Amino acid sequence: LPISGTPRDTPKLDCSKTPVVREPLAMLALDPVEPALPPVNVMAPERPNPQERLAGPDESGDIRRLGRAVIETEARSIAALAERIDDAFVRACRYMLACQGRIVVLGMGKSGHIGGKVAATLASTGSPAFFVHPGEASHGDLGMITPKDVVLALSNSGETEEMLTILPLIKRLGVPLIAMTGNARSTLADTADVHIDVSVEEE
Questions:
Q1: Whole-angstrom Cα distance, residue 75 to residue 200?
Q2: DSSP letter string over 24-49?
Q3: 65 Cβ neighbours under 8 A, 6+ residues apart
Q4: Contact residues for 54 (Cβ-Cβ < 8 A; gap 6+)
């Protein structure tokens, strides 16, 4: 029977005649198929030959002469130190041998690198020692120095600003101050209890 309120000539939909659309399998896949990537070249780039850097005029003779000159200069400087083993050297050794605390090594720049090695060598041979950077010492690290310690200060010029800043504090503690400088007339040399001359004629 027709639904009330609708025209009697409304056609009925015949579902049996509805066409069925069949889609290809590729269209029903959840993930689209990506195209194949081009092949990747896995060959390592050609490395330069280190021997190519040696191309040019042969300077072997000059290099050998320069190497020998450096060794000879160092040898002369070390030999000159033998004449400086004087009473000041003996007093410095006595201060460090009698130290009841630790040997505190100070140094800036290259002197600081040498000072660190000196402190490590002293510690490894049975003398308690440590290195303090002079720039950090004036900001609190000087508190690590006790009245039983000995201070060993290294400076080529003997006028390093950071070193001179903490000299009054070191003297106030009353600890022995040993200076190793290349300038016997420097402020550090004059202030120290013992000064050891480590100057060289040529570097």
A1: 11
A2: -HHHH-SSPPPPPPPPP--PPPPPPP
A3: none
A4: none
Q: Name residue, tokens 């290195």.
A: 131
Instruction: Taking the CA atoms of 118, 120, 121 and 123 in sequence, report the sign of the dihedral they define.
Output: positive
Contact 167, 182 (CB under 8 A): no
Task: Kindly state the tokens that stand for 57.
Answer: 């005029």
Question: What is the identity of the amino acid at 138?
Answer: S
Distance, in Å, from the CA atom of 19 to the CA atom of 72, rounded to the nearest integer, reads 105
Residue 151 vs residues 169, 192, 196, 203: alpha-carbon distances, Å: 12, 10, 13, 26
Task: Please report, in tens digits, the pLDDT of each residue of the chain (203 residues total).
Answer: 445 555 555 555 555 555 555 555 455 455 555 666 666 666 667 777 777 777 667 788 889 999 999 999 999 999 999 999 999 999 999 999 999 999 999 999 999 999 999 999 999 999 999 999 998 877 766 778 899 999 999 999 999 999 999 999 899 999 999 999 999 999 999 999 999 999 988 77
